[in-house]
């Protein structure tokens, strides 16, 4: 009986050792998988809120409020260059902070805010201006006085938005728009053409009664407008999300469908040939596409995207949407919402990030100016 009891104890210990070893090995693999994907942040990177990256001429342009930047729009697959390729554009024409950019085939546009202190000692927007440039360096203000809209409404951030239809420059179909609001609070928006503009009258695709768009896409030979913060399109569908919703809509122009991938609020969208990339309140996500139809749940990135881009992503830009995710340059801007003390990321981690395929990882992206930490 004693021998049998010892055998039972030995058998039990063997099972427990096997289970604990399996658990440790599993945890060990998971932990080291996370460690493998952790990347030390580069010291140089453009910080701040970046709301736009747009192509114009032979360059990409972005702005972080304080300055305008440009870099070649040639792929790193060709140049072999990664971080520190952005250059600060030397211009004194843009007054205020540069909030939004847009472009058409002939001009680059910039929307700027000027802040002043109100009676309660809060900094508020006191003036909004829109500028155009034919060379990306010299800018001229657009005069909207002929619209008859009062200065009060021309200088209210919720009533003014600059955007474009995201058509490729090569297609010749890229157009830029500005949304204003009349004194009776009815939305009106204009097609820009340098210093001139014409009234556009189409309703938003995601709201049949609305003429107050925030975004647009060029799809099947036509520009569609959306109330959604952002929208994007390929040859099969237009994709958009409304308000702070986590519901994603997709439409072929006549039929609308939706999925709810449980990724948090969706703020920005971009496409590759095989994935729809989402900028959300919980970081960057991706949904696989099957004949253009998005999956109902997110798929883990093979890169370090999910471990480094963990806060709100308000801007995404894919250099070449016709290739697979991870096959060409990709950009994202991360920002902190609310107070710094409550955020999971520090201010130094906000700003512009880029993925370069030959490097294989996401990291900060900026200028070569080490004295300003790449700003």
Which percent range describes the beta-strand content? Answer: 35-45%
Question: How far apart are the termini?
Answer: 78 Å
Query: How do the SSEs run, as a string of H and E?
Result: HEEEHEEEEEHEEEEEEEEEEEEEEHEEEE
Shape: globular
Q: Report Rg.
A: 24 Å
User: What ranges have pLDDT less than 50 throughout 5 or more consecutive residues?
Assistant: 9-36
Percentage of residues assigned to helices: 10-25%
Number of strands: 26
**Which structural class do the helices and strands define?**
mainly beta
Number of helical stretches of at least 4 residues: 4
Mean pLDDT over the residues: 86
Strand order of the largest sheet: 1-2-3-4
Main sheet specs: 4 strands, antiparallel
Describe it.
38% of the residues are buried. The chain is built from four helices and 26 strands. The chain is globular and about 55 Å long. A four-stranded antiparallel sheet has the order 1-2-3-4, with no helix packed on it. By secondary structure, the protein is mostly beta strands.
Features:
4-stranded antiparallel sheet; mainly beta; 4 helices; 37% strand
Note the topology:
Blueprint: H1 2-37, E1 53-56, E2 59-63, E3 68-72, H2 76-79, E4 87-88, E5 97-103, E6 108-117, E7 123-133, E8 140-141, H3 151-154, E9 161-164, E10 176-181, E11 187-193, E12 196-200, E13 215-219, E14 222-226, E15 231-233, E16 238-240, E17 248-251, E18 256-259, E19 266-271, E20 275-280, E21 283-290, E22 293-294, H4 305-308, E23 312-318, E24 330-335, E25 351-356, E26 361-364
Antiparallel strand pairs: 1-2, 2-3, 3-4, 5-6, 6-7, 7-8, 9-10, 10-11, 11-12, 13-14, 15-16, 16-17, 17-18, 19-20, 20-21, 21-22, 23-24, 24-25, 25-26
């Amino acid at each position: 009986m004693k021998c049998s009891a010892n055998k039972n104890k030995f058998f039990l210990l063997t099972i427990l050792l096997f289970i604990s070893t399996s658990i440790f090995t599993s945890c060990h693999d998971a932990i080291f998988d996370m460690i493998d994907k952790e990347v030390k942040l580069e010291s140089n990177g453009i910080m701040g809120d970046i709301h736009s990256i747009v192509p114009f001429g032979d360059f990409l342009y972005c702005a972080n409020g304080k300055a305008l930047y440009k870099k070649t729009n040639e792929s790193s697959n060709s140049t072999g260059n990664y971080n520190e390729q952005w250059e600060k554009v030397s211009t004194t024409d843009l007054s205020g902070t540069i909030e939004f950019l847009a472009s058409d085939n002939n001009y680059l546009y910039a929307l700027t805010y000027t802040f002043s202190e109100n009676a309660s000692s809060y900094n508020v927007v006191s003036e909004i201006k829109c500028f155009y440039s034919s060379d990306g360096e010299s800018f001229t203000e657009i005069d909207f006085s002929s619209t008859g809209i009062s200065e009060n409404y021309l200088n209210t951030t919720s009533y003014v938005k600059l955007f474009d239809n995201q058509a490729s420059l090569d297609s010749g179909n890229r157009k830029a728009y500005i949304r204003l609001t009349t004194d009776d609070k009815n939305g009106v928006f204009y097609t820009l053409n340098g210093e001139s503009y014409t009234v556009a009258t189409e309703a938003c695709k995601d709201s049949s009664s609305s003429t107050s768009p925030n975004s647009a896409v060029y799809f099947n030979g036509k520009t569609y407008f959306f109330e959604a913060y952002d929208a994007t399109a390929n040859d099969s569908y237009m994709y958009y999300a409304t308000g702070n919703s986590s519901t994603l809509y997709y439409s072929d122009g006549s039929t609308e469908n939706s999925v709810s991938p449980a990724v948090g609020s969706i703020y920005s969208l971009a496409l590759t040939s095989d994935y729809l990339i989402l900028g959300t309140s919980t970081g960057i996500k991706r949904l696989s596409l099957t004949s253009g139809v998005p999956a109902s749940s997110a798929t883990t990135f093979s890169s370090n995207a999910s471990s480094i881009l963990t806060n709100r992503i308000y801007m995404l830009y894919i250099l070449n949407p016709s290739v697979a995710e991870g096959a060409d340059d990709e950009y994202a801007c991360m920002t902190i919402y609310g107070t710094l003390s409550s955020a999971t990321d520090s201010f130094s981690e906000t700003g512009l990030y880029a993925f370069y395929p030959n490097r294989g990882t996401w990291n900060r992206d900026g200028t070569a100016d080490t004295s300003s930490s790449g700003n």
